[in-house]
Design goal:
single chain, 2 domains, 4-stranded antiparallel β-sheet, 6 helices, 24% helix, elongated
Length: 264
Amino acid sequence: MTKTLLALLAALSLCAPPGPEAQAAAKEDKAFARDDAIAAAERFISDQGYTAQPAAVSKDALAPDPLDASKDSDEILKARRGALEPKAFGARFDSDLWFVGFGARVGGRVRGVRMDAKGGGIKMVSQSLQADWLMGNDPKPQAISKDEAKGIAKRFVEAQGAGGLAKEPFKVENHQPDDKDGWDAWWLTFPKAALKKGAEPKPGEYAVVSVHKLNRDPKWVVELIGPPAPAPKAAVKPAAKPAPKAPAKPAPAPTKGGKKAPKK
């Protein structure tokens, strides 16, 4: 009887549903569905202070944002407060990543939150997301204009804390892909702020930002660095001094009568 009861209890334990911890572990290991990704992204922007509600994380736990214009936590929270709508605009799974878009309350852009297939590595992305792309319509991307690239580059320079650069680019170039930069992009040259306005900057006096024409990503092509140090001059060896001459032997003194003294 006892053996039968123990066997019955063992069988029931195998059939019992997993506990809460096991269920949570199984959920974490499972790929996110669209609703999961949206819920995670909405929770993220709320916790990080982008909605009208106060941030739910401490200042030390603020996730970095490529468009943060300050390194001061109070200034970051002030700029984020109420910047985005609390509800997601749309979501899309692409290249093993979830992208969730949120409408900005000013300017009309759609800011993006990115995470991996299981919700890990969640973070803000710098470029705006296209509404049609988020909804799966996949329109042919349109290249951005020179003025759009200029605005993106200026925000990028400010967010990178490059305080030594001028706020306005010296020139904007249409760059075709090459070995130095494989992007079809706009190149924007920012001179040092201390340079005279309109003066042609020399190497070491400017930085170049590349802005991709299609996905709007900015990056440094040439960072502001000092001019290269001059090559060291070859050391010149001093000319060898001639060996000193031996002193000449004095001539023997003449004897009386004009005859030389005999050798001893």
